[in-house]
Write a structure and sequence with these properties.
Elements (H helix, E strand, L loop, with lengths): L1 H43 L8 H13 L10 E5 L5 E6 L31 H7 L10 E6 L3 H10 L3 E6 L6 H12 L3 E4 L11 H5 L4
Parallel strand pairs: 3-4, 4-5
Antiparallel strand pairs: 1-2, 1-3
Pfam families: dCMP_cyt_deam_1
Function: Supplies the nucleotide substrate for thymidylate synthetase.
GO molecular function: dCMP deaminase activity; zinc ion binding
Length: 212
Amino acid sequence: NTSFKHLTQWAQRLKKKKEKAAEELSDCAARFLKISEPNCRQRCTKRSDYLSWQDYFMSSAYLAAMRSKDPNTQVGCVIVNEENRIVGAGYNGMPNGLSDDEMPWGKSSDSAVETKYLYVCHAEMNAIFNRNCFELRGCTLYTTHFPCNECAKMVVQSGIRHVVFLNDKHPDEPSYVASRLILTKAGVTFRRHIPETKKIVIDFEQLAAFKI
């Protein structure tokens, strides 16, 4: 009987120790969750200041424009398919094989042959020719400047269905009036891009130093 009594008391003490340990573990877990919850939310919630698709594509067009050698006007363009993939990119520049250092970049001269206008390939043309897919039917063209009538013809002929632009410098000039007419008659929509992000900065020094 004495042994049974001692065994019972030992079992009761063990039970109390387990209950106390369980309470301490529960308190510890609660404190941990309280501390880690903000960090968890920070890790598990997506950024809210990421670029929209529209800003991303127009930014890509402006990045392409930075490749242009034209001292007066830099134009960039990207073509995007229905799955939001960039399938073509281009900027205004001389045709392949022509030296940028030897060709004229001026806007005016006594002879038209000595100006850039008879030689430069527009950004939209280069983006269409630089495509990495078989066809552009149904795609959207993002361009930093509204396309001229010659580029509008290529847009229509390639099957592009939408044009998004940011700059419309000369809306009343005949080539741009004609461009709007061509696009409208062909059923190609066009609209000005309204940025959601007002400013984008790429600081390579900070990136290289892992400061951002």
